[in-house]
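Structure in, sequence out. Go:
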């Protein structure tokens, strides 16, 4: 009977990992993202894709925007990526850089709709002056849009 050979890990080199994983990275972006004021005024929403390298010490280098949205949103995405700090990668003494890509979503919070009230005032038909004095009556129509 042959003995099974123990399988070695196929990953010879480690990639630097963000502490806490993808969920922590998303939370970091959510907390530190500052929506640019000009983009907010224009109601601009979309995704900025940023490419960068992470060295063996976990530091972010060579940040570049691959797909932009607006200059202010691109600058904010680059600022966020430069703030990231990854964990160290131990690769048997080799100093390597890992290429990474990150999509940063710019999405405005939904604004509650304020109800609008519109009304029109139209005088009711009056009869000719043959009848005794009557006050003019009015009819109202009110519509509320939400």
């Amino acid at each position: 009977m042959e003995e099974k050979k123990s399988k070695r890990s196929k990953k010879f080199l480690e990639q630097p990992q963000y502490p806490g994983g993808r969920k922590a990275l998303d939370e970091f972006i959510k907390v530190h993202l500052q929506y640019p004021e000009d983009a907010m005024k224009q109601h601009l929403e979309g995704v900025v894709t940023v490419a960068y390298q992470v060295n063996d010490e976990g530091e972010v280098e060579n940040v570049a925007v691959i797909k932009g949205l607006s200059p202010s949103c691109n600058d904010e995405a680059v600022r966020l990526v430069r703030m990231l700090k990854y964990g160290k990668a131990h690769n048997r003494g080799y100093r390597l850089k890992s290429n990474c890509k990150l999509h940063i979503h710019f999405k405005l919070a939904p604004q509650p709709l304020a109800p609008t009230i519109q009304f029109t005032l139209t005088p009711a038909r009056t009869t000719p002056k043959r009848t005794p004095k009557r006050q003019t009556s009015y009819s109202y129509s009110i519509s509320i849009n939400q």
